[in-house]
Amino acid sequence: MVSTAEQTTATDVAPKKGRSLWADARRRFLRNKAAMLGLAILVFVALFAVFGGLLAQWSNEELDYNVMGQAAQLGGPSLENGHYFGTDDLGRDLFARTVQGTQISLAVGVIGALIACVVGTVYGATAGYLGGRIDSVMMRLVDIFMAVPYMFVLILLLVMYGRSITILFIGVGLISWMEMARIVRGQTLSLKGRDFVEAAQATGVSTPVIIARHIVPNLLGVIAVYATLLVPLMILTESFISFLGLGVQEPMTSLGALISEGAGTIAYGTTWQLGFPLLFFVLTLFGFFFVGDGLRDALDPKDR
Amino acid sequence: MRQTFKLAASALALSIAFQAHAATVPEGTALAEDQTYTFWLLDAIKSMDPQINTDVEGSDVLRNLFEGLYNEDGDGQLVPGVATDHKVSEDGLTYTFTLRDDAKWSNGEPVTAKDFVYAWRRLADPATASEYAWYMELMQVENAPEVIAGEMPPDRLGITAVDDHTLEVRITTPLPYFPQMLVHGSTFPVLQSVVEENGDDWTDAGTLVGNGAYTLTEHTLGERVVMEKNDTYWDSDNTVLTRIVALTINDVNQGLTRYLASELDRVDIPAGQYPRLKEEYPEQAVSTPYNCSYIYMMNVGEKGPEALKDVRVRKALSYAIDRDIVVDRILQGGQRAAYNWTHWAVAGFERPDIEYAGWSQEERLTKARELLEEAGYGPDNPLNLNLQYNTSDDHKKIAIAASQMLKGIGVNLTLDNYEWKVHTDRMQNQEFDLARYAWCGDYNEASTYLDLFTSYSGHNNGEFFNDEYDQVMRDSKTAEDPLPFYQEAELILADQMPIIPIYHYANVDMIAEDIRGLPQNNVNNTWYGKDMYRVAE
Amino acid sequence: MLTYTLKRLAVAIPTLLLLIVVSFLLMHAAPGGPFTAERELPPQVLANLNAKYGLDDPLWKQILTYVWNVVTGFDFGPSFIYKDRTVNEIIAQGFPVTLTYGLLSFAVAVVVGVSLGIAAAVRHNSALDYAAVGVSIGAQVLPNFVMAPILVLVFTLWLGWLPGGGWQGPEYWILPVVALSTSFMASIARITRSSMLEVLTQNHIRTARAKGLPEHRVILRHALKPALLPVISYLGPAFVGMITGSVVVDIYFSTGGIGKAFVDSALNRDYAVMMGVTILMGALTIFFNLVVDLAYAWIDPKIRY
User: Fold this and answer.
1) Does domain A48-303 correspond to CATH entry 1.10.110.30?
2) Alpha-carbon distance C286 to C242, whole Å?
3) Hey, is the C-beta of C268 within 8 angstroms of any chain B C-beta?
4) Which residues pair with C86 in a beta bridge?
5) Contact B404 A250 (CB under 8 A)
6) Does the beta carbon of C285 lie under 8 angstroms from any beta carbon of chain A?
């Protein structure tokens, strides 16, 4: 046995037939209330991240000297002074910072998930398609990588080479590609024996082209489901890194960084500093979980 | 301090206001039944070996487990430790200490002059590889540089046991504040037989033999340290606290919560919380001056940015920082705005008249803009600099505020956060523009600050090399009254502005109401469990 | 099965070697060595420190020496920062702590999570179901570094029921275990619920019910085992997540565990402790994944090796 996940997910999500599957899936997805709610939430969060800045009265780094030093008394949410979400201890506008934090967190989540998907898909599809000895060597390697305590390695990288958003994106993405690779490999194995692949082989199409043209498109369903469920995990990972103080750098911020700041000072009467970022954090995660679950159910006819 | 100096210089037998100091419980005080004191540690204690320790927190523990030649009282004055008094030779270069004959190690052996000789040699010996070996150099002990460099055997170090209770130390330059330096943990004696028998394990709880008022009974790394009263200590009859516990709590806010839940008797107050706590708990929230200064060091050396080689730019940057905002709005714990380097509360130091300290912030900003323009920077040619700071919430907040303040005069400051080790490494390699830096005085005298910016100092990472400054500091060493020289040095710093002074530290603590005997007026905050007690509520 | 186990264990060795080499190189390439002090050390002192810790050897030799000491003597060397201690001592002190609250959290997460999941599935669409789903979704996305300070605030400061940190006895275990286990418990509850719902629609359950077996026997005898498969495959990631979570627990509850030791060692460039903890965690992960796979095989007879 190579993977545990492949036995469940792989058989679950295998696309059974051609186009009608997508239409069916769309219908099932649209009928799924939780998924639609999740989608609505995600749209809202995305709009907030993209256009929220237009509503902000303050920039994300300006210090409001009227509030600074008295955040607990004066820094609460207020329409009057334009701090809709209140301010942080330095008098910076929490609304603007939450907008920016949401942007960064979404970016980390999506880019991290993309990296994991691309690497995982290429690796898994190659291993699965080539099969045999190459496959078993490649999958053994995945086994080896799986045993590395990645969070530790990521911490090491960030500590040793300074905090860079690039390392963060790549590091977060690389933590998760192995699981993806296993799932994709499992799917590829089952696709390999199908007529259209054999037809392509018979007409002398080269291996990379077969993988790109015939294997990967048929994996899109699995990949979509997995990617959607991966995004919230990436966001959670980033929040942990931010908690350790190793995340994005000031004056930039992320939801994780805002939450960990707010959580630390929860006893000091500035609960909005935790509340608003946490709200958007939770909404974002809910959105992705619901949509991901919805996609899985939609693409997998036998499930409820 | 200056009185001490004069006595020393005139080579009189020195007897500093020597009252044996112990927990002096006033008549009629009802003592609490449980004499336990629990205090907060931010991090695990790295080492309990006096010659290896480098941390302030480690020193707090060491002062209870060991005792050096002298201790400090609540006002920072010297009081006898193992030494009862000392004599200084005519030339101020030879100190002869008389050690008390009733001092004992916790295993019952007597404490002798040999134990000090062993400890000091051990500190300097490169084989020990102590990161604090340079303290022997700082103390100007004869042959210390050669011993540390491995060019001479450790037994050539200028310290000799004349007999069991007479210790002689030879130094190379008269140092008026030499006795003050003996309070430092790295000069504490250790027992050779125990160290050699147990190797690196000699500091384990149960194995460690000390000569302090307490013995180590538990040390769970990162969790707690427990010390119990040591009955062999010479003054144990007057020791009231029976148990000292140090809890490691890595999060300062968490520490405060646990203090409020009565799990601790003393904790640091996080930035910004002092005013609120002072209002709610007026008896418990305390702020006292603390012997450290906070600055942004500028890299004026070869590898530094071109702009910072221009004194006008340096001054503009310094003027543009509103210190009052930093101390009154960010820290809010009784710290003081700094316009000079030496902490204001250092004994015998008076700040000279520094011009820009007296200006209003508007005046400073106007001046800053003018200077910057003169130097050729402005909206068309904005100045871009990096500010690096080591990880800490407070450093981060101050850096953010500074970057916004400098934005006001058209300087773009990019913030770089590094771990302490990387931060330090970059500073030592001159890989920085501006860097957050703080210095805590090793002793209560201005030279501990001012020596730092001599060209021959080991800490002058901004490479501010100024012959005049060096000369002033050299002259101060032999002067009858060093204060004018110190003031001159401060004026040079204000004129050349190689650093941006930000604030002078304060100890901002919550201290349980029934605890007595913590120093009230000691800028180094050297406290001793043996001086403390707990009253009945 | 035995061959499979041995094969898996054989993979562990190159994995650990890879881990050692990679972390070793990472650390040594980074700026700021373990002896970067505020005041630059005299060359002689630095040379002595380097000699004492073997840092003056060429890199390949350092790695070989290290591996040799680990393999032959299980000796991870002295700590660079905690100079009174060896890495073995530090691990010996911190690991039992981490293991204690880790195992407890794991047990709580599995037992409570599975029970909650089954209860919700059995009472599908009831108030209990909705409550369980709601709570578990909430708990799943609440980071433990938010939960920990709230727990201390409520149970230590306001209610005064439990100590806010330290590691002196069972009453000190409760808050760390709650903080660590909650989000995993929530995930397990969700997974159990949905897989149980799926299993309950299958034919063999219908048959069992048709035979007139009492519902609880249907659930426990026939539905539970297949329903647990997805839970078991979740345990691997959960384990890795718990290792990460231990860092938060150690920071907030001052347990003196190994998670904080790792973060500290990374920040302080304590190469030796870092390597020791990384290897330990790697070995545990490998071991645990193996256990999970075997448990999976035991429950799902379809899998053959």
Assistant:
1) no
2) 15
3) yes
4) C78
5) no
6) yes
